[in-house]
Amino acid sequence: MRSKNYLFTACLMAASIFAKAQVVTIAVETQHNALVLQTDAGKNLKMVYFGAKLNDAKGYAGIAKMYKPNDDSGILDDAYTPSGSANLAEPAITVTHADGNKSLDLQYVSHAVTKVDDNVSLLTVTLKDPAYPFEVKLYYKTFFKEDVTEQWSVIKHNEKGVVTLNKFGSANLNFKADGFWLKQYHGNWASEMKPEESKLTHGIKTIDSKLGTRANLYQPSTFIISMDKPATEDEGKVLLGSLEWSGNFRLDFELSPEPSNYLRLIAGINNAAAEYHLKPNEDFVTPALVYTYSEHGTGDASRKMHRWARKYKIVDGEGSRLTLLNNWESTYFDFNETKLAQLFKDTKKLGVDMFLLDDGWFGNNHPRNGDNAGLGDWQENKLKLPNGISALVKEADANGVKFGIWIEPEMVNPASDLYKAHPDWVIKESGRPEKYFRNQLVLDLTNPKVQDFVFGVVDNLFIKNPSLAYIKWDCNAVIYNANSQYLKKDQSHLYTDYVRGLYKVLDRVRAKYPKVPLMLCSGGGGRVDYGALKYFTEYWPSDNTDPLERVFIQWEYSYFFPAIASSNHITDWGKQPLKFKIDVAMMGKMGFDIVVSKLNEQELAYAHIALKNYNGLKDVIWHGDQYRLQSPWVNDVASLMYVNDSKSKAVVFNYLVNNRYNAGAKAPIRFKGLDATKTYSVKEINLYPGTGTVLETEPKYKGDFLMNVGINPQVSAFHTSVVIQLDEVQ
Ligand code: DGJ
């Protein structure tokens, strides 16, 4: 095992400098990897290496000269490609100077490394234009043990007037390999995270969003690049990346024409209709691209990302979560105090921690009895809730359960008092007909008064109800007619300043309520990104809770986001039995959205059995390492497991995902992440009342048997879901 001392020394070296003549070499190292920057004779900063760390760091200085590209323009591997001067490749940055000139050159000036702590270092490289007082600082924040880097840029100038930023990338990365394969995602409401993998061909492949809010509705900014050959779960060179931004984004993947083994990635805020006017001495801070790299496949890479996310990004990522009963699908907008009183009792009867009241509790002049009215009027509806939220919180408490509530504070229905009182707070074009998404419009979060209002929605709920335990923060509309009455002449700032405004609100929420659990929801997974997850404890992957679909959706999210953040609810969606539904929801943060009184005796008993098992295993699922064993895309049986740090406890989930004749587990499934020398007891858990185990196994196995031979989970049409618990036996 590596000692703490070793890590400390290695961290200190995380960005070591080897100066030779005029050439400056900067190696950004993590535990296994290195990204190397180097100046050329013209002081241009190049990214000359990305890959496994070298044993002898002196070797980094000699890498660039090994490449003899048939290209003397030298434009291919700039660390941050400027435009309009000598470099004609797709730029990371394009500007219009105060005098109207469009050329930019960026030369290396200096760099510095700050150690944040034993594990985290921050490299800052300063680049300046020799002809204009214009600078870009590149930031590389490395998380040594996790092999994760967050990379962003800060743009600034001191020209005599405003400079227009036409493109302003966060990160510009350059890779060299014998071919690149991009795994990207697309989807829509209820069909999030559909993967597609393809070999990148020459030219630029762009993945972007222009939706403004709910920006990931059609495609997220998460992606996987395999190098040399398509990576598998346990083999291959692979980079996982995601932009930490909750608005319009743009990812450009450019395979150079010659030499054809250079890939340039430029990631950042989408510059479409978004040029930014930057005043002298103002910092333009771009959002970070987070990425991790592994030479051992997507499994290793995603475990690194999970560890980083739990430790450094998601709120309370190493903490606990509340199980809950939500009323969205059991009541929709149709509830009152009497119904809710029964639901509190059901929450208790079910045995979960909290009741979550969803949409429909507010609006009086425009009651929220459907999705066409009330958004913006965050006062309790007096007919449904004459005694207000505080009475509900008390009633829940009297039943021994916590109380949480749904809000969608960034939005407004035209049928609302808010819309009438503050038409200037709404994003819309006065000269054009209003265009609605789910009958609603987006409030203008660039306006500080709107920020105060949105913060106030949250703050008032907590002020009036200090024991409120949870908030589900929804966001259901995109931005049409992107016009802000607050921004006046700077309309092109809207998309960027909207997200900044949102983050300002969330900063205030977190400053005042640092720990309270918040669920990030956007009509499903319309806003799952690490920019937002910095403020949230969990996200809502999809409104599609059909458990068969969820096996696929959760599988794909799991490449980037840890199980503790995945809100998995058991609902009426899908034809599978309750056992299958609960077993699928267990692979994350479990919740229910069902009519408890409709459960028969056996189903309720099963829910209790599963919740008990979940309580015993949630530490492994939430904080352990996840291994994807068998993909649902190419097998009859999908299989995933979670192993705790000490490798003494694990849980394996197996689901039938094919209904064809005789589909099922024909061979053992090899487990992963165990200790080969340890002995484990192997037990099927989550047994439905009245059924016995289907496992035909010896009760105990060595780790090496389980990992080399495996266990047949006996999944078939008769046993569609089999959960196996492993415990070390001495
Ligand atoms: C969309 C969410 O995804 C649902 O879970 C639910 O909260 C509805 N909005 C409520 O309007």
CATH fold name of the largest domain: Beta-galactosidase, Chain A, domain 5
Envelope shape? globular
Number of helices: 13
What is the CATH homologous superfamily assignment of the largest domain? alpha-galactosidase from lactobacil brevis
Beta-strand segment tally: 36
Helix share of residues? 10-25%
- Small molecules held by this entry: (2R,3S,4R,5S)-2-(hydroxymethyl)piperidine-3,4,5-triol
The description of the largest β-sheet is: 10 strands, antiparallel
| Name of the level-1 CATH class of the largest domain | Mainly Beta
What this model shows, in words?
This protein has 730 residues and is α+β, with helices and mostly antiparallel strands. The protein folds into 3 domains: 4-313, alpha-galactosidase from lactobacil brevis (Beta-galactosidase, Chain A, domain 5, Distorted Sandwich); 324-409 and 432-476 and 499-623, TIM Barrel, CATH 3.20.20; 626-728, Golgi alpha-mannosidase II (Immunoglobulin-like, Sandwich). Helices cover 20% and strands 30% of the residues. It is built from 13 helices and 36 strands. The strands form 6 sheets. Strands 6, 7, 8, 9, 11, 12, 14, 15, 19 and 20 form a 10-stranded antiparallel β-sheet that branches. It has an 8-stranded parallel β-sheet with strand order 28-27-26-23-22-21-30-29. A hairpin with a 4-residue loop joins strand 6 and strand 7. The longest helix is centred in the C-terminal third of the chain and has 23 residues, at 601-623. The radius of gyration is 27 Å and the shape is globular. The chain starts with a helix and ends with a strand. (2R,3S,4R,5S)-2-(hydroxymethyl)piperidine-3,4,5-triol is lined by residues 328, 358-359, 406, 474, 476, 521, 523-524, 540, 543.
